[in-house]
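Holo prediction — 2-acetamido-2-deoxy-beta-D-glucopyranose.
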Amino acid sequence: MPRSSVHKMRAVALLATCLAVTVSPSYAAGPKILKTKFTSTLVDISSAGGKALGFSKVNAGNEPDAPATNAILKAVATVEAGNNQEFTEVLIDTGSAILWVGGEEAYEPGPNSKLIGDFSIGYGIGGAGGPAYTDRVKIGDAVVNSQIIGAANATSGLALVKPIDGILGLGPANSNSGQIIGFNSTPTFIESLVNEGVIHEPVFGIEISSLDAGSGNQITTGEITFGGIDEDRIVGDVVWLDQLPPINFRWSFNVTSFSFGTRQLSTDTMPGRTDTGVLLIGLPFDFLFDVLRSIPGTTIVSDGVLGGTLAFPSNVTADSLPPFNLGLGDQLFELPASKYLVPKPLYTSLNLTEDFTYSWLGSAGQGSFMLGQKWLENIYTAYDMEGHRVGFAHLK
Ligand SMILES: *[C@@H]1O[C@H](CO)[C@@H](O)[C@H](O)[C@H]1NC(C)=O
Ligand SMILES: *[C@@H]1O[C@H](CO)[C@@H](O)[C@H](O)[C@H]1NC(C)=O
Ligand SMILES: *[C@@H]1O[C@H](CO)[C@@H](O)[C@H](O)[C@H]1NC(C)=O
Ligand SMILES: *[C@@H]1O[C@H](CO)[C@@H](O)[C@H](O)[C@H]1NC(C)=O
């Protein structure tokens, strides 16, 4: 995208300011942990033109994550910015690392907005672009006085999650290089909160709202905490795992074991990652086939919205399927069948027939796990941007 040299100069000036703030954080008075509620919504597929979930993108490994294109359930929060505007449908995404809005209602510069240049981000299929500002941005209880925010004037490939106001990227520090054009990398919302002394530690915790296994209705409200984790939402200790290199890429870690009922699929360590912007439960390709072969009549859905996922024969129910057990550090996290099967009441809106018992299980590629929304409904996760670790805890 073309940009004027004026923008470039502004951009350079801004970067200098950011660096200065980073060097001398002021631990001013203020609450230590700030909370933001968020919700998961079901997107009716019939309105999305029957597009597939983009599994090939998940399989592709090194491609940028495709949060929007992979979601049918959206985890969204409200972002206040611009000219006194409220953007209520902002996707929470641990798989990318800039904030932008304007996907539905245009961002209007407000009293605190300063134009700094342009932004451009791609999510595998599609993306967003437009001018970039610094602005006062409020998300739940958390306020940043000078946050870089993209004001999209063009988006593409996001039809499946419409309406979508924008994306709040919560990926690792320095994983957004070049997305605000002319900048190497820019502070995420979490880093800005630390830089401005609002929170003391660049740590955040996420609980994805859970859907009832029977009805498909939302039964818990999701939450992000900035500055720490919400002890009220978890039981037991947080297992912290070191991020796998490169640490400025994505939230990845070693999975220690994996089993399907009594079938021990892996006792070797294998890489895994979390991505709140992606819907599915992503298993290593070989394991997906192992599960397929172990239950006669199981198949891979060839097309439609659940293309690439496992479908069990219709005589199989949650009662006849064993749980998965994921080993993280010294803890086991159980995923019961009721949580990896698509609730029957959702079949109509997902354009599925009763010929199969459908699941959220898909391939995350060769030899790696991807913990998307349906997995994270069952596991509390925490992210330490300074310690470069990912934490896991059992939900209350
Ligand atoms: C619903 O599924 C049928 C096949 O089962 C397909 O022909 C149709 O195009 C789908 N509709 C949408 C909106 O995806
Ligand atoms: C969208 O924003 C870009 C970057 O600021 C700009 O170059 C372009 O002219 C804008 N397009 C429209 C249609 O406003
Ligand atoms: C992950 O597991 C591999 C293989 O066991 C090991 O070599 C590596 O050190 C582990 N990395 C971390 C960060 O735990
Ligand atoms: C379920 O149906 C499949 C074929 O679709 C069959 O092979 C299997 O034996 C059936 N299982 C049960 C428990 O009836």
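READOUT: The pocket of 2-acetamido-2-deoxy-beta-D-glucopyranose (ligand 4) is lined by residues 296-297, 313, 315 (CB under 6 Å).
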